[in-house]
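Page 37, continued from 36.
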């Protein structure tokens, strides 16, 4: 191990620590028992988000997983199918809860870059015979930005087509939009305009926005009423939720525009690493705050590569067998990115030189 002045943590944008201003907002939050609907800070946050995303109603959740799982529970009956891309979080990380809590089958597509088309959905639905007594697909789930494809954006034009098609088929569209605001900042499309082409959408406060917890599910009044019941059932109805809401409100009012800094930093990392030709980086697909690195040319599994980088003070996430994910966020600077790139390159050189077994 070399001299390490600072650990540079690029595993995820969830690793941030609340700023002093956010801590102050949490400390001074006005709270009440929201079991009785008394928490004004939560009520304010939900109204703010519903308005920002152009939805009738919103409900604060403890996590993105809870938003997704409750959306699934609201739209489906046990045994129903949901259609989504294989790469999406609802499959890749939430296959367990989706089948255990939601009791749904995941009808998976393999769309280029995770950007589903009406044809993919048509194939998923009609690819097998559906007699009267067979199960049905009752929900379409999308993701924006698409985590498994390195934070790629689900383009508005594709979303419009899908939404129209799904409407014709009577399929509601839930958007797992935990990093939706990254897409809004990168495309300069307002959340309201983008979210128009979804029936419900969730977004996270604890990823790029830097809050310690919280996600919000937004949709029609009737959907959110139903979601409130399941949130209670699933143990997510907090009492003095205003502490969480205050952090979320600080995050959404102060940390959205600065996501463009994270996007610049991710691009910088991609450019610096791409210049060395170790990782097959396609700069075209570095659209927001993530970079995916292939370790195939190094002939090393991602988890081994991640261990070697950790020894040098750079933390990365082993996404799949030969893919490593690096994510920029509020707690890494441009200088940190340059240092991280230098160390990652040095590790790669050492691997190819045989200095590291
Ligand atoms: C696209 C997406 N959806 C859902 C989640 C789950 O969020 P949480 O970790 O808050 O449960 C994540 C987490 O990274 C995510 O990237």
């Amino acid at each position: 191990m070399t001299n390490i002045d600072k650990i540079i943590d690029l595993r995820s944008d969830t690793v941030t620590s609340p700023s002093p201003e956010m801590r102050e907002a949490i400390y001074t939050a006005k709270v009440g028992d929201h079991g009785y609907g008394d928490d004004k800070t939560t009520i304010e946050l939900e109204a703010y988000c519903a308005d920002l995303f152009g939805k009738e109603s919103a409900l604060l959740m403890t996590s993105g997983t809870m938003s997704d799982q409750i959306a699934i529970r609201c739209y489906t009956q046990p045994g129903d199918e949901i259609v989504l891309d294989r790469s999406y979080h609802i499959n890749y990380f939430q296959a367990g809860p989706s089948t255990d809590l939601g009791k749904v089958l995941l009808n998976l597509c393999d769309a280029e870059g995770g950007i589903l088309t009406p044809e993919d959905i048509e194939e998923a639905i009609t690819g097998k015979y559906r007699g009267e007594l067979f199960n049905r697909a009752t929900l379409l789930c999308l993701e924006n930005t698409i985590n498994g494809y390195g934070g790629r954006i689900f383009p508005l034009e594709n979303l419009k087509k899908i939404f129209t098609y799904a409407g014709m088929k009577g399929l509601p569209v839930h958007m797992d939009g935990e990093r939706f605001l990254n897409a809004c900042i990168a495309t300069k499309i307002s959340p309201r305009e983008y979210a128009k082409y979804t029936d419900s959408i969730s977004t996270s406060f604890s990823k790029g926005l830097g809050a310690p917890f919280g996600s919000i599910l937004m949709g029609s009044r009737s959907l959110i009423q139903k979601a409130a019941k399941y949130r209670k059932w699933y143990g997510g109805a907090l009492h003095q939720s205003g502490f969480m809401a205050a952090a979320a409100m600080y995050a959404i009012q102060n940390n959205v525009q600065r996501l463009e800094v994270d996007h610049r930093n991710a691009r910088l990392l991609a450019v610096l690493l791409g210049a060395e030709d170790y990782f097959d980086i396609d700069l075209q697909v570095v659209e927001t705050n993530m970079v995916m690195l292939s370790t195939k040319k190094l002939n090393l599994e991602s988890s081994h590569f991640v261990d070697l980088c950790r020894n040098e003070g750079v933390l990365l996430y082993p996404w799949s067998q030969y893919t490593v994910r690096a994510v920029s966020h509020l707690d890494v600077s441009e200088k940190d990115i340059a240092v991280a790139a230098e160390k990652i390159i040095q590790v790669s050189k050492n691997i190819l030189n045989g200095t590291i077994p």
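The first strand starts at residue 8 and ends at 9. Flag for discussion at group meeting. DSSP finds 14 helices and twelve strands in the chain.
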